[in-house]
Amino acid sequence: MTEEWYCFKCKEKMVKAEIPFVYLEVEDKGKGIKCPKCGVAYFDEQTVLDVIIPTQEFIDAK
Ligand SMILES: [Zn+2]
Q1: Is residue 40 a part of any domain in this protein?
Q2: Does the residue 2 lie in any domain?
């Protein structure tokens, strides 16, 4: 992907980053983008599809 994202707060160009998250007390990391200035971070769409949605479906199926 060549799409570029900018922080909505400080208008800095977002950089790719591994973003740690905790989901139901399990720590994991997902690919995303992060603002180098204020540290705000977003998961990229593929991470949401690959990691977060399957995790939720797995939990729901239990
Ligand atoms: Zn920022």
Answers
A1: yes
A2: no
Q: What is the pLDDT of residues 44-60, one digit of tens each?
A: 888 788 877 776 666 66
User: How far away, in angstroms, is 35 Cα from ligand 1 center?
Assistant: 5
| Phi, psi (degrees; rounded to nearest 5) at 27 | -90, 140
The residue-averaged pLDDT of 1-25 equals 87
- In this predicted structure, the answer to whether residue 61 has a pLDDT above a threshold of 70 is no
CA of 42 to the centre of ligand 1 (A): 11
Domain count, the chain: 1
Residue 3 within any structural domain of the chain: no
